[in-house]
Design a protein that fits this description.
By secondary structure, the protein is α+β, with helices and mostly antiparallel strands. It is built from eleven helices and ten strands. Strands 6-5-4-3-7 form a five-stranded antiparallel β-sheet. It has a three-stranded antiparallel β-sheet with strand order 8-10-9. A hairpin with a 4-residue loop joins strand 9 and strand 10. Helix 2 runs antiparallel to helix 3. The longest helix is centred in the N-terminal third of the chain and has 37 residues. It comes from Flectobacillus longus. Keywords: Cell membrane, Membrane, Transmembrane, Transmembrane helix. It is a multi-pass membrane protein.
Length: about 350
C-alpha cells in the first residue's frame, strides 16, 4: 500500500494506474462499444434491403473516436499537472489552454461526425423505401434532404465551436455582421443563386431524377440534383455538371414527358421508277406504319410522295413511335426500315444514288 501512495510527478501511483487503466480499457473495448451501438441503431432503423454491416461501417470509426476521447476525459480527472512545470492554468493563455481547447474541438467534431454518419445511414434506408414507390419525386428528395441536413449539421458544429470553445456570442456575431455580411453575401452570390435555383427546381418540378432532358446543347438522363448543380449522364456516357442557376434561366425540354417520338426521313427512288410503283410503295409504307404495334396510333403520321428531285423521286416517311426512349425509337426505325426495303424490292423499284455533273 505504501507503494501505491508514493508520488510520481506530484501524482500518486494509484492515480497513475487509474489513468492508464481507463485509457487502456477505452482502447480495448472501443471496437466492441462502437459495434454494439451500431447494431442498436440498426435495429431501430432497420430495413430489409440494407445490410447491418452498412450501418456498422458507417458508424464504427466515429463512435470509436468519440469513445476514446471520453475515456481520456474521464481518465484525466485522476491526474494533475505538476506545479513544478510552472504552466499557466487552463483559464489563462498557455499550453494547458491550447490542449484543452484542442480537445474540446476534437470532441465536438467527433460528435458531429457521428450525426453526419447517422444522417447518411438514414438516407440509405429512405432511399431503399423510395425505390419501392412509383413516384420519382421521393427518389430525388431523399439525397437533397440528406445534403441539406449535412450542411445544417456542419454549420451547427461551426457555431458550437465558436460558442462553447471560444466563448463567442454567436447570436451577436450573426446580427452584427453588417457590412462584413454583405461582403460575404456578394462573394457567395453565385453559390446562393445556385442554392435558390435548386429550391426552385424542387418546387416547380420541371424534371425528376431519371428523366431525359434537353438543355441547350446537352441531352441526357438526370442522375442527381444537388445544392449547386445538376448532374446529367449523356448518351455517350459522359457526366455533365450544370449549375442550377443556368438550368432555371433558360428553356428546358423534358423528353421523358413525351407521349411519342417522331421519326422522319426521305426515301429516294430512281427517276425512272414507274408512277404506279411509286403509288404502291407509298400506300404499302403507310399501311405498314399504321398497323405497327409500337406506332402511336392517335397520330401515326403520314407517308407521301413529297418531291421530284434532280436525281430522285422523294417519298417523305413520317411517323410517331409510342415511347419517350431514344433506344426504343431507334429499334422501331430499324425494324420499319428493313420492311421498307422489302416493299421497294417487292415492287421492283431501286433506290436512287447521287449523280454528279461537272460544270466548266
Amino acid at each position: 500500500m505504501n507503494f501505491l501512495s508514493q508520488s510520481i510527478l506530484e501524482n500518486t501511483v494509484i492515480d497513475l494506474i487509474w489513468f492508464t487503466g481507463i485509457c487502456l480499457l477505452g482502447v480495448l473495448i472501443k471496437r466492441y462499444f462502437s459495434i454494439v451501438l451500431s447494431k442498436v441503431l440498426y435495429r431501430v432503423l432497420r430495413h430489409d434491403k440494407v445490410p447491418i454491416y452498412t450501418c456498422i461501417e458507417l458508424l464504427r470509426k466515429p463512435l470509436e473516436v468519440f469513445f476514446i476521447l471520453n475515456a481520456i476525459w474521464l481518465a484525466s480527472y485522476h491526474i494533475k499537472v505538476p506545479k513544478a512545470w510552472h504552466l499557466a492554468p487552463v483559464e489563462q493563455f498557455g499550453i494547458l489552454m491550447f490542449v484543452w481547447k484542442t480537445f474540446q474541438l476534437t470532441l465536438i467534431m467527433s460528435f458531429s461526425w457521428i450525426l453526419i454518419r447517422i444522417t447518411k445511414f438514414l438516407a440509405i434506408v429512405f432511399q431503399e423505401k423510395a425505390a419501392l414507390t412509383e413516384s420519382k419525386l421521393d427518389d430525388q428528395f431523399v439525397p437533397f434532404t440528406k445534403d441539406l441536413v449535412i450542411v445544417a449539421l456542419v454549420l451547427m458544429t461551426f457555431f458550437s465551436m465558436l460558442g462553447i470553445v471560444f466563448k463567442i456570442d454567436v447570436i451577436a456575431l450573426i446580427t452584427g455582421l453588417g457590412i462584413g455580411g454583405l461582403a460575404i453575401a456578394l462573394a457567395a452570390r453565385e453559390t446562393l443563386e445556385n442554392l435558390f435555383a435548386s429550391f426552385t427546381i424542387f418546387l416547380d418540378l420541371p424534371f425528376l431524377v431519371g428523366d431525359t432532358i434537353l438543355l441547350d446543347k446537352v441531352t441526357g438522363d438526370v442522375e442527381k440534383i444537388g445544392f449547386r448543380s445538376t448532374r446529367i449522364r449523356t448518351g455517350d456516357g459522359s457526366l455533365v455538371t450544370v449549375p442550377n442557376r443556368l438550368i432555371t434561366a433558360q428553356a428546358l425540354e423534358n423528353l421523358s414527358q413525351r407521349n411519342y417520338r417522331r421519326a422522319r426521313y426521305v426515301l429516294r427512288l430512281r427517276l425512272d421508277t414507274p408512277t404506279e410503283a411509286v403509288k404502291a410503295i407509298v400506300n404499302d409504307i403507310q399501311t405498314l406504319v399504321e398497323y405497327h404495334q409500337k406506332v402511336y396510333h392517335s397520330d401515326p403520321g403520314k407517308t407521301r410522295f413529297d418531291a421530284i428531285g434532280d436525281n430522285s423521286l422523294d417519298i417523305l416517311v413520317s411517323y410517331h413511335v409510342a415511347t419517350n426512349s431514344i433506344v426504343v425509337l431507334n429499334e422501331v426505325k430499324e425494324e420499319i426500315n428493313y420492311q421498307i426495303l422489302s416493299i421497294v424490292q417487292k415492287h421492283q423499284a431501286q433506290l436512287a444514288y447521287p449523280t454528279f455533273r461537272i460544270i466548266n
